[in-house]
């Protein structure tokens, strides 16, 4: 097990957990907590115009980031942005189509790759950093400010296919047929993501999360090269530049690999998706904080199924450093009163 450097104790519960301290009641935030399930978000989104316009409008992005904090008082606030701002900043055409999701001009060859910027133009992302700076001054003193980026494999999957695909077949096929191109794309995203996260920390983020949303699509033969190792390089580069930075790693569908992430010191916390039983998995991850992993559909269901799901996570996590969260992002049809029920039960444990 890799030794972790001790950090100065913080008064913020999320940071205390990321530093390895068991905190009770568990601190809580939820992935996509600023989003379409909130009526106030939908109103602000309509005011902004396009989704990317909202991401790049510091005033409005700050507003939607603060909305769930005002409503629920979560222990962390995560920057409102999108994982595709990196390929957009690099020069790839990115647009969001209502009810369809992101559309990109595919990058499928080294010729396409050569048309992108050699290095991440941070100037194109200044609105994101301004949002972080605004949030730093607007959040309650007890609330942790989180930044984030997408993992290289997940972002590359969008860049290659030009859209989200059910099983990331275009990117997987590319990895088999043209491994040299895929490695160059992954390397570019590792470098860009590292620089991006460093700048987020400098702008006010106290911790960051790396989202590997498509980890389940990778077979074992490709997982280390396209997921584990690129994430390790980002975390290593960030911590070399900003040693106090804390990192949460979320690999959806990566349950079989979580122990190797822990043993290699990749991140300060590992987030579990909803398919994993925390009573079985958490004991296998000593020496590292964890996060998760309520099923987002249990949150939609509410009532007794929600209570049972919450209690199962609480029972498994008692006595260890753990952040309560969902096993993936909150869904748009989630009733707001069910989120209130969730927060009350976690904090009343």
Short key terms for the protein model shown above:
disordered N terminus; 349 residues; alpha/beta; 9 strands; TIM Barrel; two-stranded antiparallel sheet
Task: Give the helix/strand class.
Answer: alpha/beta
Number of domains: 1
Q: Bin the strand percentage.
A: 5-15%
CATH architecture: Alpha-Beta Barrel
Query: What is the helix/strand order?
Result: HHHHEHEEHHEHHHEHEHEHEHHEH
State the separation between the terminal residues, measured CA to CA: 32 Å
Short description:
With 349 residues, the chain is α/β, with parallel strands linked by helices. Helix content is 48%, strand content 13%.
Structure explained in plain terms:
This protein is α/β, with parallel strands linked by helices and 349 residues long. The protein has one domain (13-347): TIM Barrel (Alpha-Beta Barrel), CATH 3.20.20. 48% of the residues lie in helices and 13% in strands. The protein has helices at residues 13-18, 39-48, 51-55, 58-72, 85-90, 110-114, 126-138, 152-161, 169-177, 179-203, 220-241, 258-263, 278-281, 296-301, 303-317, 336-347; strands at 76-78, 94-97, 101-104, 144-150, 207-212, 246-251, 269-271, 289-294, 322-326. The strands form two sheets. It has a seven-stranded parallel sheet. Strands 2-3 form a two-stranded antiparallel sheet. Helix 13 (278-281) links the parallel strand 7 and strand 8 (289-294). The protein is globular and about 55 Å long. Residues 1-6 have low confidence and may be disordered.
């Amino acid at each position: 097990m890799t030794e972790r450097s001790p950090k100065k104790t913080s008064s913020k519960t999320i940071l205390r957990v990321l530093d390895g301290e068991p905190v009770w009641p568990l601190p809580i935030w939820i992935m996509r907590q600023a989003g379409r399930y909130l009526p106030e978000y939908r109103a602000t989104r309509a005011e902004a115009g396009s989704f990317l316009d909202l991401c790049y409008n510091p005033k409005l992005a700050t507003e939607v980031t603060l909305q769930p904090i005002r409503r629920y008082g979560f222990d962390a606030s995560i920057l409102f942005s999108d994982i595709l701002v990196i390929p957009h900043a690099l020069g790839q055409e990115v647009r969001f189509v209502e009810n369809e999701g992101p559309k990109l001009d595919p990058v499928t060859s080294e010729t396409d790759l050569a048309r992108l910027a050699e290095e991440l133009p941070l100037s194109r992302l200044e609105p994101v950093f301004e949002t972080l700076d605004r949030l730093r001054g607007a959040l309650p003193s007890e609330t942790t400010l989180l930044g984030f980026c997408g993992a290289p494999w997940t972002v590359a999957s969008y860049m290659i296919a030009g859209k989200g695909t059910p099983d990331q077949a275009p990117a997987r096929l590319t990895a088999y047929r043209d491994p040299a191109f895929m490695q160059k794309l992954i390397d570019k995203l590792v470098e860009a993501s590292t620089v991006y996260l460093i700048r987020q920390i400098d702008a006010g983020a106290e911790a960051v999360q790396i989202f590997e949303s498509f980890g389940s699509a990778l077979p074992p033969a490709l997982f280390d090269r396209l997921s584990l190792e690129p994430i390790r390089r980002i975390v290593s580069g960030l911590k070399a530049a900003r040693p106090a930075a804390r990192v949460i790693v979320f690999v959806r569908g990566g349950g079989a690999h979580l122990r190797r992430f822990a043993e290699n010191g990749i991140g300060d916390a590992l987030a579990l998706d909803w398919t994993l039983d925390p009573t079985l998995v958490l004991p296998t991850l000593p020496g590292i904080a964890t996060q998760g992993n309520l099923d987002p559909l249990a949150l939609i269901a509410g009532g007794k199924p929600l209570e049972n799901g919450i209690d199962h996570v609480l029972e498994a996590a008692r006595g260890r450093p753990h952040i309560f969260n969902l096993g993936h992002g909150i869904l748009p049809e989630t009733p707001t009163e069910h989120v209130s029920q969730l927060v009350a039960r976690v904090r009343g444990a």
